[in-house]
TrEMBL record:
This is DNA/pantothenate metabolism flavoprotein C-terminal domain-containing protein. GO terms for biological process: coenzyme A biosynthetic process. The lineage of its organism: Bacteria, Pseudomonadati, Verrucomicrobiota, Opitutia, Puniceicoccales. InterPro entries: CoaB-like_sf, DNA/pantothenate-metab_flavo_C. Residues 7-211 form the DNA/pantothenate metabolism flavoprotein C-terminal domain.
């Protein structure tokens, strides 16, 4: 799996889960971190596939972008591309739940229910990591509002990842919608490195540079 060029699959942005054709739940992810990583991986000479939720960002030049909207669509795209890749960096902030019922037409305001029943969205990272082949590397992101490192370590173990990137969201230092970030890279072997605070573009190049230098160059 280490033949040149490295092929990298990155997910970015939010997903949306619809109540009806014009209403949905989502989150504030801008996609900036994922897009920055895609550009950095391209600059490193990697072949990059970028599965992106709805964002207001231009496609990075030289990167193959696969647009998706829902978590189910993102899972399908990742499952199709991951067997072809050396590394998956799952940055996207996928909605954890979706309405059990999606109405085919716009529901009038006076007919809206005050209570909505939800169901869990498929866990993309756990599903894909469970099927990785020898030589493939899976990296997740953990966006947390508290106990950032502890929750990231739990996610790293539960989903059997190789690495996880922990960052804080919410409040004044939130990574969501910001051009800056402050992350902690934690490995399944216990290694831990801090990157930032700094511009997401700089942190992306540092992360890709680290992976390139220590895990793919022999």
């Amino acid at each position: 799996m280490n033949a040149s060029p490295i092929r990298c699959l990155i997910t970015a942005g939010p997903t949306r889960e619809y109540f009806d054709p014009v209403r949905f739940i989502s989150n504030p992810s801008s996609g900036k971190m994922g897009y920055a990583l895609a550009a950095a991986a391209r600059d490193a000479g990697w072949r990059v596939d970028l599965v992106s939720g709805p964002v207001a960002l231009p496609a990075p030049e030289g990167v193959e972008v696969v647009p998706v909207v829902t978590g189910r669509e993102m899972l399908a795209a990742v499952q199709e591309l991951f067997p072809l890749c050396n590394i998956l960096i799952k940055v996207a902030a996928v909605c954890d739940m979706r309405p059990k019922r999606r109405f085919p037409d716009k529901v009038k305001k006076d007919e809206l229910a005050l209570t909505v029943e939800f169901e869990p969205v498929e866990d993309i990272l756990k599903t894909v990591a469970a099927g990785k082949q020898p030589g493939q590397i899976v990296i997740g992101f953990a966006a947390e509002t508290q106990n950032v490192e502890a929750y990231a370590r739990r996610k790293l173990a539960e989903k059997k990842l190789d690495w996880i990137v922990a960052n804080r969201v919410g409040g004044a230092r939130s990574a969501f919608e910001s051009d800056r970030n402050d992350v902690l890279l934690i490995g399944s072997d216990g290694e831990k490195l801090a990157f930032g605070p700094g511009a997401k573009t700089d942190i992306a190049h540092q992360l890709i540079g680290y992976l390139n230098a220590y895990h793919f160059v022999h």
